[in-house]
């Protein structure tokens, strides 16, 4: 590596409920963006965990493992970006500690906070069609996931396609203010 200070990567942080279309938008962003981005979905980290029946955890143990997993994911995102990689992060900020931890570990990085919205009716339809999600999970997440009320870009997948959302995001990137939503939230919530 060169002795010059390396650039840090940009983080396009997609926040929305389960089944809101974040992963589909991320896939389209990788196709339309002008430079190479990595898609870092939290689902990929979850899939790495051992699933043997002998490792079944009681609810308290599982909660502890999931908290460590989420905290590790935040740090993996920060590490990739600090190494100069541009990222599309696909996540569900369904607990405030997740946002607070992200605000801390992603400090100093160019994070574009993107709200991915979808109507409760459409979320329910998608959960049922997918068959791999707990019915009602996405609707239950709606209240917390978008409660932070401070995005750089928003899109609504109720009627817009993932490609349309990706194109909207791409076009919006050139017109963002210097002060990002994560910077404002960090100031408001962490002082």
UniProtKB/TrEMBL annotation:
InterPro entries: CPT, P-loop_NTPase. Keywords: Transferase. Gene3D superfamilies: P-loop containing nucleotide triphosphate hydrolases. This is Chloramphenicol 3-O phosphotransferase. One of its GO terms (molecular function) is transferase activity. The active site is at residue 43. The keyword Transferase applies. It comes from the Bacteria. It comes from Nonomuraea jiangxiensis. ATP binds at residues 16-23.
């Amino acid at each position: 590596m060169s002795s010059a200070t390396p650039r840090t990567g940009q983080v396009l942080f997609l926040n929305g409920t389960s089944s809101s279309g974040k992963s589909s938008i991320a896939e389209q962003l990788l196709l339309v963006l002008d430079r190479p981005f990595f898609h870092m979905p939290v689902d990929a980290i979850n899939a790495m965990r051992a699933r043997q029946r002998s490792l079944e955890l009681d609810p308290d143990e599982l909660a502890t493992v999931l908290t460590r997993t989420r905290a590790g994911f935040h740090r993996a995102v920060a590490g990739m970006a600090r190494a100069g990689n541009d990222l599309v992060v696909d996540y569900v900020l369904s607990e405030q500690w997740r946002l607070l931890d992200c605000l801390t570990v992603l400090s100093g990085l160019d994070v574009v906070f993107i709200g991915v919205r979808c109507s409760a009716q459409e979320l329910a339809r998608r959960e049922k069609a997918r068959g791999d999600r707990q019915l009602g999970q996405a609707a239950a997440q709606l209240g917390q996931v978008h409660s932070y009320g401070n995005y750089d870009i928003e899109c609504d997948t109720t009627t817009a396609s993932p490609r349309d959302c990706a194109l909207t995001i791409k076009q919006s990137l050139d017109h963002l203010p210097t002060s990002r939503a994560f910077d404002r939230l960090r100031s408001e919530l962490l002082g």
